[in-house]
Amino acid sequence: MVEWPPLVEKRTADTLMGIKTKLEQDLKQAMRSGDAVRKSTVRMALAAIKLAEVERRGPLEDDAILAVLQKEVKTRHETIADAEKASRPDLIESARAELDVLRGYMPQPLTGEELEAFARQAITESGATSVKEVGQVMKLLMPRLLGRADGKTASEKVRGLLAAK
Known about the structure:
Elements: H1 19-33, H2 36-56, H3 62-85, H4 89-103, H5 112-126, H6 134-145, H7 151-163
Helix pairs in contact: 1-2, 2-3, 2-4, 3-4, 5-6, 5-7, 6-7
């Protein structure tokens, strides 16, 4: 049986301090070094985290911070898609640079085989037998994949596996 991945990968000395603390330190370093892209991207990420903390009325744990960062990554992907439709290479380039910075704070993504194994296990645990029950499977699966796979990819994998039943 496949083991579920930890919500946050094994931490290195770099990440022992917590993602938010790492972001704050990286912001200071980017300001010192004059790295404008890193500085603006980290500021944006910290602002999104702060907004989520205000909405929640308390500090966020690392898994919730990862969810916020995953949302920001998804936004950058959407920006790139829209900029490609509009033939705006300048926007594509800046969004890709921001995406590269954000990916540095995300855990290692799952391979297709790993995602399929986790999807199969979630299907087994939920007892789902048809495509109509994708929601039940996704409810189990997504918290365990946080930051390691996006919802669209996971949903497609689950739908494919349930359709094959």
